[in-house]
Amino acid sequence: MSFSNLGLSPEIIRAVSELGYDKPTPIQMQAIPVALAGGDIMAGAQTGTGKTASFTLPLLQRLSSDQNVKNNANGFPPIRALILTPTRELAAQVQESVRDYGKYLNLNSMVMFGGVSIGPQKQKLRHRVDILVATPGRLLDHVQQGTVNLSRVEVLVLDEADRMLDMGFINDIRRVLSLLPKQRQNLLFFATFSDKVKTLAAGLLNNPTMIEVARRNVTAAKIVQKVYHVDRERKRQLLAHLIQANKWYQVLVFSRTKYGADRLVKQLGEDRIQALAIHGNKSQGARTHALAKFKDGTLQVLVATDIAARGLDISELPHVINYDLPNVPEDYVHRIGRTGRAGAEGQAISLVCVDEHHLLADIEKLIEQRLPKEFIPGFAVNPEIKAEPIPNGRKAPSGGGGHKTRRSAPKSASQRSAKPASSRTAAGEKKSGPSSSAPRRSKRK
Ligand code: AMP
């Protein structure tokens, strides 16, 4: 099977072959023909499967093959495709792909997200935008200010819809839907199926084709997964030891909390390991800077929270470390999905202390696999140490700062968008324990 067998135009095929794609991935093989025929799609596919091209290529083909659209009052064609993503980083990445795949087509795209000044976005919207990639909050700010018109959207893509729902975007999504023409094509992508996704899909999709590609966690034999048992207070030492002894570069470390991520960066610095953190409290500039340095190999360690890391396309990542196990077992799957890409072998290592044994059990149940457990010489576990409940963020070191457990719900769309996208949620970064003590996922009005 080749891209030309899928019925894509020579301009699109030229662009993807220049990117080195010689054959479509399974999700592309399944989704592209359906989308080209105009059908709605509901697809389960994680980052790394080639899902972006699976919705972008048919979308580009559809828009480019029919350019006979009436101009708006501003003299330009209307926005004809809207791609919604949960995070800014994913939005930026998707728009980059739209640009790359559409480089030989006469179509313009734009990305918009919060946390950056709205002025330049307004300016861009005065010109031609065929394809808009947006996060929901900032999009609604533009709607409120009357600077964006969605009344002629022909194709809607919800990328990582499950994550958007987890992040409390349901009402924003509903509002956006109410602004779109009834007659349109809908492409809904999710990584993990849930009742919320099902409900959203039921109200949105019209006779959809269901597509699911193999979950990377279960099938990706190229990811070597290991658990190192270690005492709570010695995790940091073990992490530094592993990085230094093995001379690891490009290590993505997951922290359960933003506070924990910052603290770890500082501690790694004390061990002369260069690290930066990426999470919802960091400015957009700091996030972009850290990500760029990490991607180009000049930053040894990136410490991330689940939400900040979600959807980042960092290819062929050799090492993913779960410094803390996630409270939500599905997040383990997302985390390790960043390694072992594109045929490269990757390592996913979890540092597990006595407090986290139940989280490990949940993960093993989900992935239907027992993870190999190892002890590192010099880091033997002290059996005297008893399990403690996992607090909201690890305990602050003496004299250290606390960790906020609550944030009052923002009020207006513009107030909301002043915050980074990932601070909009109580999910992931702010959940307390694995039990019912976890606060509910944020629901915004
Ligand atoms: P995605 O799942 O959309 O985030 O894509 C993951 C990575 O796979 C990106 O770096 C893409 O450039 C790459 N990719 C997508 N489709 C193909 C393909 N058909 N062949 C090779 N690489 C691809």
Helix content bin: 25-40%
Terminal CA distance reads 47 Å
Radius of gyration, in angstroms, nearest whole number:
22 Å
Task: Identify low-pLDDT runs.
Answer: 216-221, 393-445
Estimate what percentage of residues fall within beta strands.
Answer: 5-15%
Rounded mean pLDDT is 83
Shape descriptor reads: elongated
Identify the strand order in the major beta sheet: 3-4-2-5-6-1-7
**Count of helix runs:** 17
What small ligands are held by the chains?
adenosine monophosphate
Helix/strand-derived category reads alpha/beta
* Sheet with most strands: 7 strands, parallel
Number of strands: 14
Structure notes:
The protein is an alpha/beta fold. The chain is built from 17 helices and 14 strands. Strands 3-4-2-5-6-1-7 form a 7-stranded parallel sheet, sandwiched between helices. Strand 12, helix 15 and strand 13 (346-352) form a beta-alpha-beta unit. Mean pLDDT is 83; it is low at 216-221 and 393-445. Bound molecules: adenosine monophosphate (AMP). The site of adenosine monophosphate has 13 residues, from helix 3.
